[in-house]
Amino acid sequence: MAKLNLLSFFFFCIIFLCFFFHYSSQFELEEPWLDEEDEDDVNMVQSGRDIHSTKKCDFSVGKWVYDQSYPLYDSTCPYLSTAVTCQKNGRPDSDYEKWRWKPNSCSIPRFDALKFLGKLRRKRIILVGDSIMRNQWESLVCLVQGVVPTGRKRVTYKGPSMSFHAMDFEASIKFLWAPLLVELKKGPENKRVLHLDLIEENAKYWRGVDILVFDSAHWWTHFDTQSSWDYYMEGNSLYRNMNPMVAYQKGLTTWARWVDLNLNPQKTKVIFRSMSPRHNRENGWKCYNQKQPLQFFSHLHVPEPLVVLQTVLKRMRFPVYLQDITTMSAFRRDGHPSVYRKAMSQEERKQSKGLSSDCSHWCLPGVPDIWNEMLSALV
């Protein structure tokens, strides 16, 4: 009987311990994925081959919060293009500079220039893409340049690129013009040919880089008179017409194959930023005189280029980080230069109906600063 009681007690202890550890593990899983003070855990938000799996924190889902502590720099930053310095160009309102993006289930750490440059010490980061990627590059340079002494920073221009150098950190932040990623060349009769399966002329600049940030979407959606090419070419076949999204998928697949074959994930981090939304409807004036973010969408439409991008990334072996800024930026039709692309007199401004309205690029300081806060958390 004593032996039976001992066995029963032993069995009870095993059951109790199993229950205890099971309960403990459940409790740990219920803790917040990212405390607002814990900035170091955020760099794995979107990673690897499971890029489309459900994450506990999704930077792309949240809301814009008005924050008086923004912006983090002003439009006197010497590295800004005239076309994006909306305050200097006479824009009368400035609230568009003071909105911070707050994800639903975590927080994006406030941009810390010294910490970011510390991560970049003896490294190179290249932002590859179109004029909106240059928009983001100018934002990033302005975010960091204030902590670098005047004699210890410089910008150099070479061919299709421009680079900011922080000498004390031996770090460089470069923008490289390659809006289609694949090669656009002159063909017979001076025709422009987009080679969907050639990329090395652009990709040769990407080798040996520590961090690569890509975007490519807008130029692929141009058509007819706005198109930058006359023909598509794949192998030896020449095409006059092709579905733009089929062409986009072919071009992205060429990029993805090059990354898979040529880059080492132990040495290079690759981030692909999703397309920046445009607010160009109503003859390009949909963003004119807008002063607040949209509060909601009547319906949420996922742009086809984003679907194509997700499909291509999902098939890759290389762990590419998808930085999805499309929906969050779609709320911000107030953030574009609109008619404030250059300085004008009041008299010229009165004739604004004859002015072109830029509802594609972004005023700086502004929306791309938040993209770069996300970027800083990812690198």
Describe the structure.
With 379 residues, the protein is α/β, with parallel strands linked by helices. The chain has helices at residues 2-29, 113-119, 131-145, 200-203, 244-262, 281-284, 304-314, 326-330, 346-350, 367-378, and strands at 62-66, 99-103, 124-129, 153-158, 161-166, 171-177, 183-186, 192-195, 211-214, 231-234, 237-239, 269-273, 320-323. 29% of the residues lie in helices and 17% in strands. Strand 4 and strand 5 (161-166) form a beta hairpin. The radius of gyration is 24 Å and the shape is globular. Mean pLDDT is 84; it is low at 14-55.
Please describe the structure with a list of short key phrases separated by commas or semicolons.
about 375 residues, single chain, TBL, globular, about 30% helix, 7-stranded mixed β-sheet
Short description:
One of its GO terms (molecular function) is O-acetyltransferase activity. Belongs to the PC-esterase family. TBL subfamily. The protein has 379 residues and is an alpha/beta fold.
Helices and strands in order:
Layout: H1 2-29, E1 62-66, E2 99-103, H2 113-119, E3 124-129, H3 131-145, E4 153-158, E5 161-166, E6 171-177, E7 183-186, E8 192-195, H4 200-203, E9 211-214, E10 231-234, E11 237-239, H5 244-262, E12 269-273, H6 281-284, H7 304-314, E13 320-323, H8 326-330, H9 346-350, H10 367-378
InterPro entries: TBL, TBL_C, TBL_N
GO molecular function: O-acetyltransferase activity
Family: Belongs to the PC-esterase family. TBL subfamily.
Helix content: 25-40%
Poorly predicted parts: 14-55
Query: Separation of termini?
Result: 65 Å
Helix-strand pattern, N to C?
A: HEEHEHEEEEEHEEEHEHHEHHH
In terms of DSSP E residues, the strand content is: 15-25%
What form results from the Cα inertia axes?
A: globular
Radius of gyration: 24 Å
User: What integer is the average pLDDT?
Assistant: 84
- Helical region count? 10
